[in-house]
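COURSE: Structural Biology Practicum
ASSIGNMENT: Worksheet 4, Part C
STUDENT ID: 0417
INSTRUCTIONS: Below are two proteins. For each, the amino acid sequence is given first, followed by its structure token string. Answer the questions at the end about the second protein only.

PROTEIN I
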Amino acid sequence: MVICRFLTPHRNGVYYFRRPIPEHLRPIIGQREWMFSLKVKDRDAAKRLVAIETVRTDGLLLQAEHALKAAQPKDSTQIALERRIAEQTRGREAHDRDHQALVDEVDAQLRHAEDEREARIAAQEAEARHLRHVIRTGRTAQMEPQEAVRVRAVRDAEEQAALAAERVVALQAELAALRQQGTPTV
């Protein structure tokens, strides 16, 4: 679950990014907090923007920390720790990129499966209308072999549509699980 600590709704319905700056970094950054409009009224869009701004301000805080530490002498333990943190950050960013690529791929598969399902349903409905017409006009006894083949085709199409619907549901569940599993906490 994504926690939006820095998301603040305004009375006009527009969401704001509001993040306090740690006390020891205020002299370097020159302000007490960051607060600005995200210029959106939609909460989901605001959550995405807050995530981006959180990463951006994390970078600024990190730069301020580096500037503060640059003024202090470093020992080998601090240097090793900073290197390890940098490596972990790079690894996390690579994981996030890979995860987003996987989510995008599953999303594309889902859209493709939904498109196929809709096309099958449209073809099935057209064939069903024709067969209802044949039955309504009393031509069932005189059904030609081609129409009998179409009846079988409609049955096959119904089975394929059911399978496609199951695939769409499975892909939706997989996409939801991936989003829940890999979404970084803000």
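PROTEIN II
(use this one for the questions)
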Amino acid sequence: MKLLRLLVFLFLTTFLTTGAVSAQTVTFEDLTLAAESFWNGSDGAGGFESKGAIFSNSYNAEWASWDGFAYSNLTDTTNEGYEAQYNAIPGMGADDSRTYAVGYCSSFATAPPTITLDGGQLLTGAYFTNSNFAYYSMTKGDDFAKKFTANDWFKLTITGFNANGVETGKVEFKLANGEDIINKWTWVNLSSLGVVKQLTFALSSTDNGDYGMNTPAYFCMDNFNKQDDSDDDSSCFINSAR
């Protein structure tokens, strides 16, 4: 009985102080996929939901193109180029899971990849890594992008917004820093964003041309809002800004 009262007290204290409670961990394992496949919005759904979080997606049937979020369970770590846009370079989800999300920040998109939560939430963070497409482009170079050298970087910027649409802060994470290019799932702490209703995602790079960024504009994400971040080893790559 004492334990129950303590838990109720902690819940009410958190809710009354911040107006929010923590969201569930989004592992994407509740999403149905055939083996070695992906979902990119070609069914016209306009997005998908997992554990109460809504992930944006826009699909253009005329061009068979998409932007926003997709999800995948592909495991090939050697596939390169455009065909590898749905592959996470570790070959699996975080914590050896099967399914993970893929974000694509298209320069032609009308809106960035966006996560919308069910009310204001206190978030812990998420795991991020590179897609095969971006990873091999940066490590080898390709017809459109350069091989990364010591002064190059590839950065993911996550921006939080509260229920009123007011920005709460930004978290920046380098998917590549010089020749150190992320190839494993890496924890990014999002707690500095405070209580958020929505997150948007943007990518930037030192490799740019006349038509914008040359580095393939993809990232992979898993275990969004995981409650235990004891595997955090991303301190060398994170820069938080409020």
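ANSWER KEY EXCERPT:
Q1: The chain has one domain: 21-241.
Q2: Helices lie at 2-18, 132-140.
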